[in-house]
Amino acid sequence: MYYIFNNASITQKELADKMAIKEPSVVRLLQKLELGGLIRRSETSEDKRIKQLQLSSKGIKVYHELLPIADNFKKNTLQGIPEKDLETFKQVLEIMTKNTIKE
Question: What pTM was estimated for this model as a whole?
Answer without folding.
Answer: 0.74
